[in-house]
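Lay summary. Proteins are chains of building blocks that fold into shapes, and those shapes determine what they do. In this project we predict the shape from the chain. Here is one chain we studied, written as its sequence of building blocks.
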Amino acid sequence: MTEILALLQIINQSVLGTTTRKRLAIVILAMLAMAGRITMRGISRWTEEGGSYRRVQRLFNTKIDWSQLMVTFVAIWFADAEEIFLLAGDETVVTKAGKQTHGLDRFFSSIFGRPVKGLAFLAFSLVSVKRREAYPIRMEQVTKEKALCGQRKKKADTKKQSKKKGKRGRPKGSKSKNRRDVELPEHLQQMQVWLRGTLRLLKIVGIPIIYFMFDGAFGNNNSLQMVQQCGLHLISKLRCDSALYFPIQASRKSTEPSANMAAS
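And here is the predicted shape, written in a compact code that computers can read:
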């Protein structure tokens, strides 16, 4: 608890103002002490002097760059000259009822094994190779655009109807496509913006990143090109239907006649 408050005092004025720092210290102590459901009114009841309900409201209405704040925490407290960091991403889904919540939609949940109604969040974490620990530095809400989803579905239906049964194999006259020149889907474009913003913050504090890790859902060419466009290498698990081609290791058979044939 005292380490958290000590970190707040070290944070630069440009990252976190003096007034916001004092309010945040009061709220942190209350949240660490309270149990059960956490609400603004509950926080105000557990705070010490200076933690009125109105002051807690002002803190939650204050715009804070949490990504910059969390990156600064890691750079001050955990990073050193010999530390090696990897950047990892993961998506989590929280079930939610109702109709008015922003970003409410159906997302696939690995826990339930099916799409569920709820909210989706994408988190970036720094993984320390030396300490074998992960430190979250950014979390963003994943949303779906209804209009784009409708257009995509309509386009897929039209393509399915126009498709005729033909001969097997590659159509005659078709040309090979450049696998590196791809049009990224909407969710990968959104993720690329967050990834580049995170890399910009890490560069400011002097933490170099070479590798980006993600789960098997991103083990495809589109995700690979998205990560490489950010100047990183992707570490992921390939999908079960990935087509792999290994180079031929055996040497070619010699066309010269053998010794026995030459003797005869």
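What the prediction tells us: The chain has nine helices and six strands.
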